[in-house]
Amino acid sequence: MRLSIKYKLFFILLLANALVYVVTFSVWYYNFNHGFIEYVSRIEERQVPALLKGLEKFYRENGSWDEIRNNNNVWSDLIAFSIESSTDPALIAARRLRNTRPVPGGFTPNDWYYSSEYSPARPYLRLLDENKKTVRFTPGAFLPEGTTFNPILIDGKTVGYLAVTSRQQLSEQGDLLFATQQQNEFFHLALILGLLSALIAFPAATFLTRPVRQMVDGARALTSGDYNSRIPVHGGDELSQLSEDFNTLAKTLQQNQHARQQWIADISHELRTPLAVLRGELEAVQDGIRPLNADTLDSLHQEVVHLNTLVNDLHELSLSDIGALIYKKDNIDLSEILEVCLGKYVRLGCAQLKVSLHIDSSQEDESLPMVGDPDRLLQLFDNLLQNSFRYTDKGGELQVTAREDGHHVLVEWIDSAPGVSDNDLNHLFDRLYRVEMSRTRAKGGSGLGLAICQNIVNAHNGTIAAGHSPLGGLRLTITFPRTMEQLD
Asked: Which distant-in-sequence residues (6+ apart) come within 8 Å of 255 by Cβ?
């Protein structure tokens, strides 16, 4: 049978209370026993002088111990009156009020205070004559090691001894009586405290496990696909923090679901457009509306190239997302990679823009050493060049600056108009996102170039950020760490 956390916590609280009760009772019982014996010892110390005076008075009046030896009642009465003389007068007065047949001093003949063998007010007593021979003794009296012999003096002459053996522990019968009484009292007390503990522990366990129950219900809702599920957050403890984290997870899953649905819709739309154009062109050729000439074939070829570019970009981006792109990082010179990439476009006659490269290095050969994958970095800068050439007005300008920045290498990519709005800057690296008006599908882009660039930069533990260019266009700032330790 599986127990819920609520009941486990409930039983833990009960067990903790039970342990506290047991330990408390054990300590109290131990201390009470020792305190009780100390109390007995203090009473005995008060009794002995009174008993000695009573015995001295008895011997002066009778001249011997014969009457005590022959009559046990004399011995008992002598002890009783001696105890009374050493007792608090208020106690005696109270006993006189309670007893139905009072005797002188307030004690009944069978008063437990002095007649019981287990009375705490009675030590073990033994009356000895001058030769230390026993005259009379109380039940249980003996002469072990440590017995105190108190001399009874008459006119400076020893006529006997009062042997006193203090109790070092309660007698077995007294222990049992005391233990039984305390166990009964503790049993009833434990029942009451246990009931109170249960009445407190169960609501407490229910209250403490309520956030857990809510998280369980919320997790089941997430499992069933309900990403709108949220749980209330109360307080500032660990469970509250866990509730906040759960809500953050639910929000993230909801956003991911929305992004996935949007991603599928965008891909479908992007693929449908070139396919629709191809279909329209081919149907026009089939129906004889459009002749199958070089212009028609060029148009069809452009749509196929656009479709192929889109599919390749999607494939490469998906590989980057799952970490399947291979990066072969080594010690490289970033300035050399930039020169190769920019020079290629100039040599191919694609430089409808004025392109400039500025390297700021502390090295004698003006190199910018770092650790990276040269092929992927060439792909990065190639995508950025295509983006600049595609979306920058002809006759414009592209400035590329690379410099050292402490333990990093900083690359600034600045082109001229047209620029982008503040809202567009926040979405430039979103997949399939295009800036309206100036950066449209008519420019031939797939909307994935900057997303691929961001993945390449992230794979090098770098950062890429977009801003407004002082030339009126787009400014991209890329930062790379220089060492392998920073990459790891």
From this structure: none
| Of residues 367, 371, 378, the one with CA closest to residue 330 | 371
Q: Six-digit token pair at 188?
A: 């009833």
Each residue of 121-143: pLDDT tens digit?
A: 455 678 888 888 888 876 554 56
Listed residue (47, 125, 129) closest to 87, CA to CA: 47
Q: Which residues of the chain have pLDDT under 70?
A: 1-6, 29, 32-46, 82-124, 138-146, 166-180, 182-183, 259, 262-263, 266, 269-270, 273, 317, 320-325, 345-351, 431-447, 484-488
- In b/e form, how buried is each residue of 93-104, taking b as 16+ CB within 10 angstroms? eebeeeeeeebe
Q: Which CATH number fits domain 326-487: 3.40.50.720, 3.40.50.300, 3.20.20.140, 3.30.565.10?
A: 3.30.565.10
461, with CB counted inside 10 A (0-12, 13-18, 19+), is: middle
CATH topology of domain 238-320: Helix Hairpins (1.10.287)
Structure tokens at 170: 């309660």
For residue 214, give the nearest of 236, 237, 239, 235 by alpha carbon: 239
Query: Shortest CA distance to 258 belongs to which of 10, 418, 430, 141?
Result: 430
Q: Hey, what are 183's tokens?
A: 């166990």
